[in-house]
Amino acid sequence: MGLLVRKLLYIAGMLLLISLISFLAIHAAPNSFFAAGELNPNITKESIEHLKAIYGLDRPLWEQYLRWVWAILHFDFGLSFASGNRVSSEIASRIPITLTMNVVSMIFVFFISLRLGIKAALKSQSTTDRAIKQLSLVSFAMPSFYLALLLILLFGLKLGWFPISGLHSIEPKEGPWKLIDEAWHLVIPIFVMVFGGIGGLTMYIRSLTLEILKSDYIFFARARGIDDATIRKRFIMPNLMPSVITILGLSLPGLIGGSVIIESIFSINGMGLLFFQSALSRDYPVIMGILIITAFLTLLGNVLADLALWRLNPYAKRES
Fold it and tell me: Does residue 109 sit in the same domain as residue 52?
């Protein structure tokens, strides 16, 4: 229980620090949401000042920050400059698809990387090992936006197998067909996210597995005639899990951050696309709301990874 309390205090402290840095960075950026209005001769200066007063932008920066933090503590993210809607409702309508894409892609990345990494290590220096290493290097070096464009051209425009934008077809679907239609639209985006994530993790698992295979207990197990399948199940997997879970927890920010690019390319109305549009228009409340929620999900994922690590390795509690 003490460890859990410490982790919760850690989340609270990190969120406060992230909010402060993000708030100062956003307000230090050039231009503002009202920049276009200030250049419009039909909008008076008094109107601009009135709008700033409505949103509290006429107050000192430190006061704006304290008022914003107090509102966040009451789960109030404010109003969007662009739409006038509540930021919480804007995010709530878009976060499910972003979380779905990231969770599904992470599951695929985990199982594919685990299988490829162990297989490459067990067949080290073979043709299989070299093929897996080449695939991992291509995955690691391939920019996600470039791969997305290639797949759109091939499978979307040339072959016409998959849709290239949005979440729904022109003809509306009902019931289970709606879910199937959404899943069909997400095939290419999730593939891009998975392919970009397996490279580094596969090579990491391969390296860890090679170190495990050098252990004395592996030598004696093979001397007793134990096959690779049993060695993988009884010796490799239990020793791999703590390190792999830790790496997955640390990779959460990259997966969530990658949603901005993927959702923008495929016009998916998720939290990533909302963040991109809000950044272009300097919609401060939406930007800050998304940053805080993303930071919270990332920190929560790291804490869950730590809890899973403690479950697998009780000695980790003593080291924390």
Answer: no
Range of lowest pLDDT (28-37, 69-78, 234-243, 264-273):
28-37
pTM flag (> 0.90): no
The answer to whether 110 touches 255, Cβ cutoff 8 Å, is: no
Q: Which tokens is 251 given?
A: 């990779």
Per-residue pLDDT, 39? 47
**What would the pLDDT profile of 108-133 be if each residue is shown by its tens digit?**
988 898 889 888 888 888 888 899 98
Residue with tokens 């920066």: 61
Q: Quick check: 193 and 144 in contact, CB under 8 A? A: yes
What are the backbone dihedrals phi and psi of residue 86, each rounded to the nearest 5 degrees, phi first? -70, 135
Number of H helices, E strands in the chain: 16, 0
Number of domains composing the chain: 2
Query: Which uninterrupted H or E stretch holds 63?
Result: helix 61-73
Q: Can you give the residue range of the structural domain that contains 54? A: 31-76
Q: Which residue has the tokens 């596969």?
A: 202
For residues 184 and 135, membership in a common domain is answered with yes
Burial grade of 99 (CB within 10 A; 0-12, 13-18, 19 or more) = middle
pLDDT above 90 covers a percentage of the chain that reads 1
Q: What's the pLDDT tens digit per position in 18-49?
A: 888 888 887 776 666 565 555 455 566 666 66
Residue 65 shares a structural domain with residue 206: no
Helix ranges (H only) for the chain are 2-28, 35-39, 45-54, 61-73, 87-122, 127-141, 144-151, 176-185, 187-213, 216-223, 228-231, 237-250, 252-266, 271-281, 284-312, 315-319
From the CA atom positions of the chain, what is the Rg in Å? 24
Asked if 96 and 185 count as a contact pair (C-beta separation under 8 A), the reply is no
